[in-house]
Amino acid sequence: MKVFQEVSIKQKQDNSLFGLGVTYGTATAIEILAQYEVEPVSLVCRHITGDWGSFGSFQEIELSEEEANGESWLLSEEPGKKNVWSLRNNGVEIKSEYILPGGETVWVSTIRKGSGSTIREGYSGLRN
């Protein structure tokens, strides 16, 4: 049984905030997306341009001075703020959460520095 499959991302977004590396999707996530006729590339394009679904938008999220200085970002319960901090401070991971029409959740996660990205089904209570 194939657990991961490589997702071909050939589009280059002029307004991308970071690179993806190789992108994989879990078989379950790809099946969920197909069920709702959502192309994986559409979520990945949103992800790299700062539209992180229910985690917010890069253009709209503001960090306090304390958060921007890295003094309390780890304590934040807001994944969007963690994403903004990571982009501004060369952090490790960027996460997005997209809720589909049927209520299922799909996450896109990128480990920076060229490691790669994954598209996977979301799990209740494991957002951070």
**Strand composition percent:** 15-25%
- Name the poorly predicted regions: none
- How many helical elements? 4
* Number of structural units classed as domains: 1
Order of helices and strands: EEHHHHEEE
**Can you tell me the overall shape?**
globular
Largest sheet geometry? 5 strands, mixed
Average pLDDT, rounded to a whole number, is 83
- By DSSP, the count of extended strands is 5
Q: Please state how the strands of the largest beta sheet are arranged side by side.
A: 1-2-5-4-3
Q: Could you please describe the fold and organization of this structure?
A:
This protein is an alpha+beta fold and 128 residues long. It has one domain (4-8, 16-121). It is built from four helices and five strands, in the order ββααααβββ. It has helices at 27-35, 40-48, 65-68, 79-88; strands at residues 4-6, 23-26, 93-99, 105-111, 116-121. The chain has a five-stranded mixed beta sheet with strand order 1-2-5-4-3. Strand 4 and strand 5 form a beta hairpin. The chain starts with a strand and ends in a 7-residue tail after the last strand.
Summarize the structure.
About 25% of the residues lie in helices and about 20% in strands. It has about 130 residues and is of the alpha+beta class.
